[in-house]
Amino acid sequence: MDSSYPGRSRQERDKSHAPPYEECDLSGIDDLACESKGVADRAKYIADHEAALTDRRTAYDTARAAYTTARTAVAADVARIRKDLHQIREQLRCQLEQGTVRCLDEAWDEVAERLERCGEPRTGCCVEECDVDAEREGYEDDDLDQLTARIARIDRMVTAAETCFGELAGEPAALTQRVAALRTAATALLTEISDPTTADPKHAYATLRWLWHRNDDIWWGFPRVHDFHNCLCQALTCSVTGRRVLGILVGGRGVLQCRKDAEERRCGTLRTQVVEEVLEACARACRSDGREDDKSPQEHRGGAQAEDGTKGGTKGRAAGEKHSGDQVSFETEHVDDREERPRSTW
Fold it and tell me: What is the per-residue DSSP string for 155-204?
């Protein structure tokens, strides 16, 4: 008897090394940790954007009130500027030949198109379509790469809306500056054409076309006050809704990333403990006396039991059995369908 185990049989010694309960699946621990990671990622995302969202909410109220005030303050001056531009136009048309006026108008149309191609600032509401909830649909079925791409797509949409909101928040001050600059330019043109002996009518008419264009855009694409308010609200709504949805998706991505990392850790452990895993797998499949639970040794070798109870013999020999002296070799007719990896040389 082995002195290392005094008083214990071999069967008892083998049982002392039996693996844990074969249904013991600890992956639930990883799942719980990953769910916790997802909640933490979502909370962090919301916390990271909370201050900016609060500032935009405050800026929304400020911009609404300031725009209404600014629009009321400049309305009379805008009306006077338009009246002055009409007066300048009539005066210059009397000084220029009709063909020259037509040529200058066509030249302005060409330059206006070139300005547009150069990316002249666009007027009107700058909020693009922002259906964040529609973009969110079906994210539960995404894998990690698909969810990451979805997050990036929604983030671009929301970031564009927030950039628009920043521009709109500065519109009250910008409106006041535009009107003041146009007032100065119109006054200068009136001074230029006041002396017919020194004035250049063609230069003055080209200047007039440019000032007229600026006057047409003086309200920056918002014909009424409530048009500006609606656009401002759309931008803020897209920001708030988008960040809320992105928080959910970032949390989901955290869960998927955590599960992927856990799987990689398990695979790393498996690669470093191959022998131990082989022994444990064998212990799960076999009884402690070394025999398998459900199959006899003959069934695992592919051997056949003779009907009379004897093994071997002519009837008991497997198909493909060959003799070479006293040695016997067996050929298998099984072909591995997995051609992508070389077959074992065992």
Answer: HHHHHHHHHHHHHHHTHHHHHHHHHHHHHHHHHHHHHHHT-TTT--HHHH
Do 258 and 38 meet the contact criterion of CB atoms below 8 Å apart? yes
Provide the 3-class DSSP secondary structure of residue 262: helix
Q: Give the residue from 238, 232, 239 showing the smallest Cα distance to 65.
A: 232
Q: Is 222 in contact with 231 (CB distance < 8 Å)? A: yes
Read off the amino acid at residue 218: I
* Alpha-helix runs per DSSP H in 27-143: 27-95, 98-117, 132-136
Cα distance between residue 163 and residue 242, in whole Å: 13
Spans in the chain with pLDDT lower than 50: 1-6, 8-10, 12-23, 300, 303-307, 309, 311-335
Judged on CB neighbours under 10 Å (0-12, 13-18, 19+), 132 is buried
Tokens read off for 341:
């990896």
Q: Which pLDDT score is estimated for 27?
A: 65
Please list the residues that pair with 323 across neighbouring strands.
328
**For the chain, how many helices (H) and strands (E)?**
11, 2
292 secondary structure, DSSP code = B
Residue 286 three-state SS: strand
Q: How far apart are CA 279 and CA 101, in angstroms?
A: 97
Residue 288 token pair: 């402690």
Task: Supply the pTM of this predicted model.
Answer: 0.71
Backbone angles phi, psi at 50, to 5 degrees: -65, -45
Cβ atoms of 62 and 168 within 8 Å: the answer is no
pLDDT of residue 31: 82
